Amino acid sequence: MSGSDRPVLVAGGTGFVGRRLVKELAAAGHDVRVMTRKPQRHHGPGTAVHGDVGLPGSLAEALRGCTAAYYLVHSLDSTDFESRDAAAATAFGKAAAAEAVEQIVYLGGLGDDQDDLSAHLRSRRQVEGLLAEAGAPVTVLRAGIVVGHGGISWEITRQLVEHLPAMITPRWVRTRTQPIAVGDVVRYLVGVLGHPDAAGRTFEIGGPDVLEYRQMLQRVAAVEGRRLPILPVPLLTPALSSRWLSFVTDVDTRAGRNLVDSMVNEVVVREHTIRDVVPFETMGYDDAVRVALAERAAERAAER
Predict the structure, then answer these.
(1) Which of 103, 135, 179, 264 could form an SS bridge with 68, CB 3.0 to 4.6 Å?
(2) Which pTM value belongs to this model?
């Protein structure tokens, strides 16, 4: 790919993954544009530009002159997130193609296409196709649970462990997943930018540990020096689980419900070609947990 001196746009650059990505891209010397609905509120690295994936007319100016664009946007906190995300991806893909963007990088979700995927994971798959429909080359990185301070999935895990002495849980706590540290996600996102072997390809990314959800919860408890007895109950449905979640965590109820619905699907890396494109050793789950807890502690200390 050419044009490495041209700007790189990050849609969703103020979010959990996006703000970390912007920082790393800027540190690597890239000219970064942070697309946001309220550019006046952005005070981090990069140049804030106005853009809203829900308003197609706002996208052309944000994308103009860019060599690549990251798409880190979703509407999980909306009841109609599937239709909203489909419309937004279609609009962004068309605008990127019209502005001759050479690469869109999208962070999607793991999951076996032959499985009965949840609405959340089906939507992620649909977005992959819609971004590419107008012709801009798309690089997809599919991930499971991303471990890092401020991430919704991580916050559910941390708060359940810290707020409950024991848990009565649904059967999906036996579902396997392959969590990945947010720092490693960012490293992959940066690594595929402009890489000649990444254009138009889909990769699966994960950390070194394949764990059941119950193991993830218990290992967080162990890192924090506590025990967490878990008793699975077959009749605790995802709907009841999400209501239970709203009582013991402060995670947005709709977003939490959509994520809980996905926990019946195994999300494990099946192909490892990303290692040939961006080779490095990913962080283990326990270390990722320690980093996330340390970030939270540092943020709380700074607020005092």
Answers:
(1) 103
(2) 0.91
For the beta carbon of residue 276, count every other beta carbon within 10 angstroms.
9
What domains can you pick out in the chain, each with its CATH number? 8-144+180-206+269-280 (3.40.50.720)
Provide the b/e sequence for 103-113 (b: ≥16 CB within 10 Å). Answer: bbbbbbbbbee
CA 203 vs CA 162, 192, 267, 269: distances in Å? 34, 10, 13, 9
Query: 234: which residues sit within 8 A by CB, 6+ positions away?
Result: 170, 171
Contact 291, 276 (CB under 8 A): no
Task: Say if CB 145 and CB 153 are below 8 A apart.
Answer: yes
Q: Would you write out the chain's pLDDT as a tens digit for each of its 304 residues?
A: 334 579 999 999 999 999 999 999 999 999 999 999 999 988 899 999 999 999 999 999 999 999 999 999 986 666 788 899 999 999 999 999 999 999 999 999 998 888 888 888 899 999 999 999 999 999 999 999 999 999 988 988 898 888 877 766 666 678 899 999 999 999 999 999 999 999 999 999 999 999 998 899 999 999 999 888 877 666 555 555 666 666 677 766 666 666 666 677 899 999 999 999 999 999 999 999 999 999 999 999 998 8
Residues near 57 by beta carbon (within 8 Å), at least 6 away in sequence: none
The answer to whether 92 and 130 have CB atoms below 8 angstroms apart is: no
Q: Summarize the chain as % helix, strand, coil (round to 5).
A: 45, 15, 40
User: Under a CB-based contact definition with an 8 Å cutoff, are residues 17 and 31 in contact?
Assistant: no
